[in-house]
Write a structure and sequence with these properties.
Elements lengths: L1 H16 L11 H8 L20 E6 H7 L4 H5 L5 E5 L5 E5 L10 E5 L2 E2 L20 E8 L3 H4 L6 E7 L9 E7 L3 E12 L3 E11 L19 E14 L2 E17 L5 E19 L2 E15 L3 E17 L3 E15 L6 E17 L4 E18 L14 E14 L5 E12 L3 H5 L1 E4 L2 E4 L7 E14 L4 E23 L4 E23 L4 E16 L13 E11 L2 E10 L2 E5 L4 E5 L2 E11 L4 E8 L5 E2 L7 E2 L1 E9 L1
Parallel strand pairs: 4-7, 22-25
Antiparallel strand pairs: 1-6, 2-3, 4-5, 6-7, 8-9, 8-35, 9-10, 10-11, 11-12, 12-13, 13-14, 14-15, 15-16, 16-17, 17-18, 18-19, 19-20, 20-23, 21-22, 23-24, 24-25, 25-26, 26-27, 27-28, 28-31, 29-30, 31-32, 32-35, 33-34
Length: 649
């Protein structure tokens, strides 16, 4: 108790004096939550702040939100955030996009776990089942909307999902979850924290699940048909307090999954993922500022219709420091090495090195006005080695190419009163082509698919005005934003170079696109037992593409409306969530045509009962209002019901 109070007092002193910003992965979030009375973030600037005070459009999903929802996976909880689009292709696979432009293997979202990138560089995609975290070890999920490459790092063009787990040093989290349900679902997961004196901690987590696919038939693009999905995951995360001013962290993860995913051509295909990662970090509070050094390596073996082996190594160094009381700065440098075997026979390897430098300036102009500017420059060096195959006569010299692109974030935050916050921002993000888009060479019968060494990155520019107001009468908050976004040189994979025998298609730039959008949300409480929230999102996209297969203006829903109610009374808990999505039109590759996805209403619900203080049983369901309904162009989504028994120890 004494230690917690001291940490909270230190956090308060740091905030009130605006002294050195805190390192995002080493702060005591629990002490800060007690201080603010709500979840806080440090990821945008390094300074602890409420989401409403951050210079970016951000929503925070708490551990309590995750538990009360009754969901079993990350896409289902992210679907409850206003402005996010989730396309569920199967029981085991979904794609998530921020503010439209969703597609199979969506490449526009940067996903981090404690600062480590977990989206996959070969397709530039996030396979949510391969993320090495159990829901029971997540402290909060920060959802950042819009391009934020300069603030958050490589490829953060559509948005950022930053998953923060409980600290092995500051938190003591131990739990076991057993779950069963429809689609023959079975899951077992556990989280264990081991304290080594007062200076070190280790958090271990493991989980496994098996289940069946939705019954709706669909043709698999690799001809193997659907199989029974499964997931196995293990993670070890340690943190040591070396001195009063320095910490050393280490992380090791391993995940194996089988799933029925959607290919970029909107076809269902069976995929087998094996991925492992290792990470080390060092943080020190020095006379030069708060210095953080991180290095991590991730290796992926993706067995689908193409057997792809890829890996990425990233080394980062940053320094956060203050000049006077009003100016905070962050300087950073990063090197990353991505490489992938470019053919099934592994006769060639495509790779790139990216050298990055960035800086952030956080200026507290006065007590009501602040300005945050961030700039990052990425220099990419593309290369290839090995042999070639197929009818196109590329050479390794064609891959001797360099690209240099800047990204920026600038945000002015004005608080005219204690209740109101205005945010005006402009951002430019850079979406680098994936390794597949640069260099894949694959043959399926008479069809050859080629990467393109001349493909250009997509440049995303966003202009946004946001407004937040705290409403004491309902103990809640109103949030709204309007934005305009342009996308230059968007990419697609269906430019036909040759018809006949063989047929050749190649990745290329499709053209430009622009979008206008608006979001609004309101949340509050009725009394101690009832809480609620409601949201609306509007998105209108206009494409200027050379190929209809890359169309987003009809596949992005124009309107989304959501509402959620929570009820607590003694040992009982209840949650009801409703989502309405307007009609869309999506491509379906195995039918070679667009499929109408009608507007739909989906209801999710949960009822929980605390048997004891530490043991809870819950019944939850997704899409409970329909036995099945179409929510994408592939399989129709079925009702899913789960019985969960969880215990803290």
């Amino acid at each position: 108790m004494k230690t917690s109070i001291v940490r909270a007092m230190c956090s308060a002193a740091a905030l009130l004096s605006l002294c050195l910003p805190a390192a995002a992965q080493t702060i005591d979030y629990g002490a800060l939550e007690q201080l603010f009375g709500e979840p806080v973030t440090t990821s945008a600037t390094g300074k602890p702040q409420r989401a409403s005070d951050a210079p970016v459009s951000m929503e925070i999903i708490s551990a309590d939100d995750i538990r009360k929802s009754g969901v079993t996976n990350l896409p289902d909880i992210l679907q409850r955030v206003v402005g996010l689009d989730v396309a569920r292709w199967s029981t085991s696979s979904a794609d998530v996009a921020v503010r439209g432009y969703n597609s199979p293997s969506s490449p526009r979202l940067l996903v981090l776990v404690n600062g480590r990138q977990v989206y996959m560089d070969h397709f530039g995609v996030t396979s949510w089942g391969t993320i090495p975290v159990e829901l029971g070890e997540i402290r909060q999920i920060e959802v950042v909307k819009g391009p934020n490459t300069a603030l958050f790092g490589f490829n953060a063009v559509g948005g950022v999902v930053n998953i923060i787990t409980y600290s092995p040093l500051y938190d003591d989290v131990n739990n076991v979850t057993v779950r069963g349900g429809t689609q023959h679902y079975g899951e077992l997961s556990a989280v264990k924290t081991v304290k080594i004196g007062d200076k070190a901690g280790l958090r271990l987590s493991a989980g496994g699940s098996n289940f069946h696919e939705f019954d709706t038939p669909t043709i698999a693009s690799n001809g193997s048909g659907p199989f029974t999905p499964m997931r196995r995951s293990f993670s070890a995360d340690g943190l040591i307090q070396l001195t009063d001013n320095s910490q050393l962290g280490a992380e090791l993860t391993k995940v194996h999954t089988r799933q029925n995913a959607a290919s970029p051509g909107f076809q269902s295909g069976s995929s087998d993922f094996d991925t492992w990662s290792a990470k080390a970090s060092y943080t020190a509070n020095t006379s030069l500022g708060l210095i953080e050094a991180v290095i991590y390596h991730t290796d992926l073996d993706h067995d689908t219709k193409i057997d792809l082996n890829s890996n990425v190594t990233v080394a980062k160094l940053q320094d956060l420091f203050k000049v006077g009381t009003d100016h905070s700065f962050r300087l950073s440098a990063e090197w990353r090495r991505n490489q992938m075997d470019s053919t099934n026979q592994r006769g060639g390897r495509v790779s790139y090195d990216v050298y990055s430098a960035g800086g952030m300036w956080d200026w507290a102009i006065n007590e009501k006005l602040s300005l945050v500017n961030a700039l990052r420059v990425d220099h990419l060096k593309l290369s290839r080695s090995g042999t070639f195959a197929g009818p196109i006569s590329f050479t390794n010299a064609d891959y001797d190419r360099s690209l240099t692109q800047p990204s920026l974030n600038s945000s002015l935050v004005y608080k005219p009163t204690e209740l109101d916050t205005l945010r005006l921002s402009v951002a430019r993000g850079v979406q680098t082509p994936s390794l597949v888009e640069y260099g894949i060479m694959n043959r399926e019968g008479a069809l050859w698919t080629y990467g393109n060494p001349k493909i250009n990155p997509t440049l995303v520019t966003n202009y946004e005005l946001g407004y937040d107001r705290a409403i004491s009468a309902i103990d809640g908050t109103f949030r709204a934003s309007v934005y305009y976004q342009t996308n230059r040189d968007m990419k697609y994979n269906a430019r036909i170079l040759q018809l006949g025998n063989p047929t050749v298609v190649m990745f290329d730039n499709a053209g430009n696109s622009r979008m206008v959008g608006a979001e609004a949300s309101l949340k509050g409480k009725i009394d101690e037992n009832w809480s609620w929230k409601a949201g609306y999102a509007f998105e209108k996209i206009k494409d200027d593409f050379s190929s209809v297969t890359a169309e987003f203006q009809h596949s992005t829903p124009r309107h989304k409306v959501s509402a959620e109610v929570n009820y607590t009374n003694g040992p009982w808990e209840a949650n009801l969530f409703a989502l309405y999505v307007s009609e869309t039109e999506m491509l379906r590759g195995d039918l070679n045509r667009f499929v109408q996805v009608p507007n739909y209403l989906s209801l999710s619900a949960r009822v929980g009962y605390n048997i004891t203080k530490d043991v809870q049983v819950a019944l939850s369901g997704m899409n409970v209002n329909k036995s099945e309904q179409r929510t994408s162009s592939l399989r129709t989504e079925e009702r899913r019901v789960f019985l969960t028994l969880s215990s803290k120890f």
